[in-house]
Amino acid sequence: xxxxxxxxxxxxxxxxxxxxxxxxxxxxxxxxxxxxxxxxxxxxxxxxxxxxxxxxxxxxxxxxxxxxxxxxxxxxxxxxxxxxxxxxxxxxxxxxxxxxxxxxxxxxxxxxxxxxxxxxxxxxxxxxxxxxxxxxxxxxxxxxxxxxxxxxxxxxxxxxxxxxxxxxxxxxxxxxxxxxxxxxxxxxxxxxxxx
Length: 195
Ligand code: GTP
Ligand code: MG
What we know:
This protein is of the alpha/beta class.
């Protein structure tokens, strides 16, 4: 499916600033630099809709995008960036978790993990949080263009078995923002959950 309309709605630096959209919403979360903003750009076939950077942890807001007047996508600030001060980490946690807990429109959380590495402790804690809070989510393995086919399969198997006992994980999806890997599968999941 081709996307004809994609536009930035607004950014929220604090919980009171989430926009009123009345659209089913899909959130993209994961460590700094894992590829959240690039994924959104590749998904809508735009280069610079969401701001990307090779410097991790630059974005500290949740950025909302309107897609086809049918869905909103939320680009979350990355977690685990250690150079942040204690205060910024506290602000980040308040913004993220109040969004995830209270956002009525939120239908699916995409939990991004770098396919080149084992999941990190923070990824596992986040998955545990999603399970405890009964949030539907998928795991997206990013940057798969950097791996050979066999290595992608091994990583997917590892994550599949990790979530085998989980109740709210809906899929584990290999993805690349530079090669066409995973986009049509992600579209199908967004159509399924984003209503
Ligand atoms: P924060 O906003 O800091 O949390 O980062 P982010 O998760 O939004 O990551 P971003 O999309 O800005 O990408 C980080 C870096 O990874 C950039 O240099 C991207 O070009 C690169 N990158 C992202 N996705 C891919 C991918 O699928 N393949 C390759 N090869 N590089 C990617
Ligand atoms: Mg980003």
